[in-house]
Design goal:
Layout: E1 4-8, H1 13-24, E2 28-33, H2 37-48, E3 54-58, H3 64-77, E4 83-86, H4 101-129, E5 132-137, H5 151-170, E6 175-182, H6 188-191, H7 197-202, H8 213-224, E7 235-238
Parallel strand pairs: 1-2, 1-4, 2-3, 4-5, 5-6, 6-7
Helix pairs in contact: 1-2, 1-8, 3-4, 4-5
């Protein structure tokens, strides 16, 4: 029986890596993205190369109606969504004096409300089919690093950890909910960091290198597998041992 994974924020970065890993493992893939049409279509093409069905759906996850339309379109294309990876996200950086309620609301809409609502809409069918996986992507910004410049993002990422625990209770026993906290991944952002910052970061990672998006993707794929049946409500750091040195 083929299974289907919905991955948000899947046009680039970790989300793209997750989509490709799931496709490689034989999952049909729903690529959810916000803006970059060409990148989403390229991800779709790469997934289809593994012989699975892949669709790209554009949605503004800050909006309740967009989430509802996304789920409707998903079920128009697939009988089920067996795995939900809540990966979409971005941060707001700025001086504390410039922080606003609106900024906090935006971060909560993307990182907390959208994962909650997607799970609320998808979990009933998962429970009906007696199989489901919800994988939330948080960050070590919620557990190990604290930056006042991104306090809205950090607070939202901390909230998704708590939500994961409650999801594991709410959708038991057939739907597992787990959370991954990635550390510093090698991306375009790390390549453009100010001089000296990367050296400082690497000095705090016991593995001595940045992570690769594929390493988070493989962790998500494992959590979606039958082998992870007894892992539920877990918070897993994928950070190379950040702050152990």
């Amino acid at each position: 029986m083929s299974r289907t994974a919905m991955i948000t924020g899947a046009s680039r970065g970790m989300g793209k890596a997750e989509a490709i890993e799931f496709a490689k493992a034989g999952y049909n893939v729903i690529i959810v993205y916000a803006k970059e049409d060409e990148k989403a279509l390229e991800t779709k093409k790469q997934c289809e190369a593994f012989g699975v069905k892949a669709i790209a759906l554009k949605a503004d996850l800050r909006k309740k109606e967009a989430i509802e339309a996304l789920v409707t379109k998903a079920f128009e294309n697939f009988d089920s969504v067996d795995v939900l990876v809540n990966n979409a996200g971005y941060a707001l950086y700025g001086d504390v004096k410039d922080k606003t309620i609106e900024g906090f609301d935006e971060m909560m809409r993307v990182h907390l409300y959208a994962p909650f609502y997607l799970a609320k809409l998808l979990a009933p069918k998962m429970m009906e089919r007696k199989f489901g996986r919800i994988i939330n992507i948080s960050s070590i910004d919620a557990t190990k690093t604290y930056n006042a410049e991104s306090m809205e993002y950090d607070a939202a990422k901390a909230a998704i950890i708590n939500l994961t625990k409650n999801m594991s209770l709410a959708y038991a026993p057939y739907v597992n909910a787990n959370c991954i906290c990635p550390g510093w991944m090698h991306t375009d952002m790390t390549d453009s960091n100010p001089e000296g910052l990367n050296e400082y970061i690497l000095g705090r990672i016991s593995k001595g290198r940045f992570g690769r998006p594929e390493e988070v993707a493989k962790t998500a794929l494992f959590l979606a597998s039958e082998d992870a049946e007894y892992i539920d409500g877990a918070i897993i750091d994928v950070d190379g041992g950040y702050k152990l040195v």
